[in-house]
Design a protein that fits this description.
Layout: E1 2-6, H1 11-22, E2 26-31, E3 46-49, H2 55-61, E4 67-70, H3 77-82, H4 84-105, E5 109-115, H5 138-157, E6 160-166, E7 168-170, H6 183-192, E8 197-200, E9 206-207, E10 209-211, H7 212-224, E11 231-235, E12 241-242, H8 243-254, E13 260-263, H9 278-284, H10 292-302
Parallel strand pairs: 1-2, 1-4, 2-3, 4-5, 5-6, 6-11, 7-10, 8-13
Antiparallel strand pairs: 9-12
Length: 314
Amino acid sequence: MNFLITGGAGFMGKALANYLVYAGHGVRVLDDLSAGDNKGLDPRVVFTRGDVRDIPKLWGLLRGVDCVYHLAARVSVPESILYPVEYNDVNVGGTVSLMTAMRDAGIRRVILASSGAAYGEQLSQPVPESAVMRPTSPYAVSKLASEYYVQSIGALWKIESVVLRIFNAYGPHQQLPPSHAPVIPRFLMQALNGGSLVIHGSGNQSRDFVYIDDAVRALERAATSQNIDRTCINIGSGVGTTMTQLVDAIETLVETRVHRLYNQEEASGVSRLVADISLAAQLLDWSPRISLQQGLDNIIKLDPRFQLPHAASH
């Protein structure tokens, strides 16, 4: 098959692109490099730098494509609170532009990488896809709006649409920006450098961390699975991990105690968010394989930024 991946130079997009091209597929990537880089992309991947809102550029990239993965988005919850206009422009506007170009090019399937953040605060856990959506940030609103656009436009223009609500993906080579960095690489880097780990709130808030290879396998399955048009499917580990438990696991991994600072003034987000992944098992024949402890260990082994001081003898 031939694929276009928007946002294919980001953390998840790059892993997906390399996985697909290794499996023998044709892969094109579009990315504006605002948050990623094309280093590490397999040389067989055809890379184009550009904006997902550029419809004429999309027309050229979509020629001969069988399926589109739409990953291009701004992805930071705290940043979205500061810049809601940009998040709406890129995340929602980019989705509408892509769907318009797909209609013009006659493409018949799109897979949207959405987010578990779209659920917001939920009393019942783990959260099923049928839950009432309660997004609590501009980022979450933009992902939910993108879901609605993909499904409504897809139905009107006969484009098959599949939405994967991916929870907290992590793994080797995840971006570590100076501000609003994802929690796992941020905590790991601080622990290895002897810094204090700043935990927002009480540390009892829990998240569902899914290893990057597991998320990529789910994305790959969504391209070929049948009878999943206009479905939303959770992709997570199905296991909740509190911030305190995450720090405990990192301490075990780096074999040292870390200094924990609890910032009660900083918002910690929703109190608990764990995916019900039974629908993924049913529709995609998919289940996660990598535990959090194994995933953290893989980061230490595979990502040179996180080498243990005694790695040579570890």
